[in-house]
Amino acid sequence: MQKKHLLALTALLFCCHITIAQNPKKPSAVEIYNQIQKLNFLGSVLYIAAHPDDENTRLISYLSNEQKARTGYLSLTRGDGGQNLIGTQLRELLGVIRTQELIEARKIDGGEQFFSRANDFGFSKNPIETLEIWDKEKVLADVVWAIRKFQPDVIVNRFDHRSPGTTHGHHTASAMLSVESFDLANNPTIFPEQLKFVQPWQTKRQFFNTSWWFYGTIEKFNSANKSNLIAMQTGVYYSDLGKSNQEIAALSRSRHQSQGFGSTGARGEETEYLEFINGDALQEKKSLFEGIDTTWNRVKGGKAIGVLLSAIIAKFDHNNPSASIPNLAKAYSMIKDLDENQWTPIKLLEVKEIIAACSGLYLEAVAQNQEATPGSTVKLKLEAINRSAASIELVSITTLPEQVKTTKNLALKNNILNNLSLDLKLPESINYTQPYWLEEKGTDGMYAVKQQQNIGIPDIIREAKVIFNIQINGIEIPFERTVIYKYNDDVKGEVYNYLDIVPEVTTSILDKVLLFKDTKIKYVGVQIKAGKDNIKGNLQLELPQNWNVTPKTIPFSIDKKGTEEIVYFEVTAPNKSEEAVAKSVAIIGNKRFDKEQVIINYDHITKQQVLKAAEAKLIKTDLKTNNERIGYIMGAGDEVPGSLTQIGYTVTLIKPEEITPEKLENFDVVMTGVRAYNTLAALANKQTILFDFVKGGKTMLVQYNTAGDLVTENIAPFPLKLSRDRVTEEDAEVRFLAPNHLVLNVPNKITSKDFEGWKQEQGLYYPSEYDKAFTPILSSNDKGESPKNGAILIAPYGKGYYIYTGLSFFRELPEGVTGAYKLISNIISLKSSETIPAQKIKN
Fold first, then answer.
1. Which residues pair with 755 in a beta bridge?
2. pLDDT single digits (tens) 249-292
3. Quick one: how far is CA 351 from the chain centroid?
4. Could you tell me the pTM of the whole model?
5. 802 CB contacts (<8 Å, ≥6 apart)?
6. Kindly report the CA angle at 382 between 378 and 383, in degrees rounded to 5?
7. CA-CA distance, 569 to 526, in Å (whole number)?
8. How far apart are alpha carbons 474 and 114 in whole angstroms?
9. Pairing of strands 522-530, 505-509
């Protein structure tokens, strides 16, 4: 390996190294011992699948904790197209959440996390469609890049590359790309631009992680020929940890909270099956690493390191881990002096953190505030403490990104706390803190990432760092720490976040979709947030010339950083129907600030800042409504209530426990949010009240739920069976099964044009079987499939109407799809429209 390759790989590893914001690592003696064992194992496995939550955490945990292998998970997407059970964030914001959930999962099961640039655009029924939308060549390049960078001995695919159409198209596509990349990664003529940073790499062998599920039934799997399978006994009990492998895997999988994948740990024997696909076949079928030297002997000059580490393991004192420090420092020095090879940067990182753990060496750089702007000076409080008898000295401190070095020569005596102060000058050129894959506008299928080196890095790239240059036993070792911010919460205790670099000012248009039903003035609110003290400037709302905005600019002055104020513009829409994008821009001097700050903050992941374009969609439409009063029962979380308020409805959120006949008397319509019957157990006991509400002359609208995990099977007053039917092609032709029905005619005439511009999908989990009391309204289907007629089902019940819809209103309304607004207004107005003469409807 050439010098430039090693330096580049080292930089990549530093970027990919997972630092912990929520809780610093404080490993026990048992964990330290396991880390030293892992330091002495030089084998690697890369697991490849499509989404967060696709990974087999049982196998990843087994390979990492039992086999001691370096284990990575390459998820081709960040899960942007899924649903969100913990909040209202969708699309790229959901992708940010699921990215962090994967990172947290890997902290538990011991793996490492990687991604491609592929955007999860939603459910896909076949890999052909998937690879067209993804841009196959780019995603293939990313898989090759991941293999060359990670350099796995073994690749394991989660899905079968030979069975298109039997599962999510993303699933099959991930396996197909993995198989195609197996040999391509070793071909220097393939994606040669990558070779500035990595070398070609040939993986030894490749497997498909099969199970009975892929055979259809357990019986079929038990009777199948398994001569090409290797069986791995993964039901290991780690007595030193007090946990089974399955229990660790369940804790890891339970990090996927936004998808509702909380898991219960199992115990006892368990078998994982791997089907051989490519490379050197196993003869004995006892180990994935058969024929692969996983000792230090595989590295030139490494034999002595292996001997030393074996001695450290044999003599490790669980009561005094610091006794291993002299030999670990020697091992660090020996690894550092090796000829360049793939393992040196990896093992240097590992041994450094083991040394810190053995010595109780705690190093921390804490910012005075959680946010700072480019060009500002950040006050840092540094903590350095050695909790061992080892001779340790803090030689110097280097601050990044400007690499300012400060000499200290401070002896770190046993258990004596050292608090230091330091000023960190942030350069004007420092990047704002945000997911790097969202900085540039991508396509429906791909995120745009300019720099090759950044592709695949899991987390936000944070530039504000401190390097503590520590001397241990005469050997100087740099320990890098990302600058954090922490505070004490009265309930949670010590809370850790990162330092975020923010713009001087951010703005946010309060309503992301604004509907104008006439040319009357509408007040558009814009929130201004100061990123630093004493900001002054002018705010403007940019719209096309035929939209009237008054005033042209609004001056603002904010004294304290973090303070917010709201101002209002008067906006008048043009006469004709039209859609426009409004942009809020703050002008300070000659600088334009056009970003909105979005904060994502959940307890189970690290707090995230996302900077989006400060925009909103304005729609001039002749939308008609009857101003019904709506009671909304929130399910898994959506933004539909806000969208309905935009239309002009009065919307009240109702908790299931609050549902009583008296409470419902205040409403004309009751709506359930997405997956309400999957997530709200209390609804099971409220059905009689809800159905009586309908029977008495009102309307109930139930939005989509998933089949199989309902809190009650009686979600409708008539038999209704949900399925997995969906229409994923948002532009699929929509046919009207009941063209004269009120819902397609009053108060808004619905035409095929109202289904143009839909986002991601038309609908999902349509009912496949339903009582004859229901009238199906729409029919559509993806290419090559049979018609799906369950998008909207309407049944008169008593004096009212019960409606079930699988249409993705929860996606379309926040996106400002005019046709979706018209259609849901008609559904809401259904009872009010009964008095319209039939002749008028036909006309």
1. none
2. 999 999 999 998 899 999 999 999 999 999 999 999 889 999 99
3. 30
4. 0.91
5. 691, 694, 699, 700, 702, 716, 717, 718, 794, 795
6. 160
7. 8
8. 36
9. antiparallel
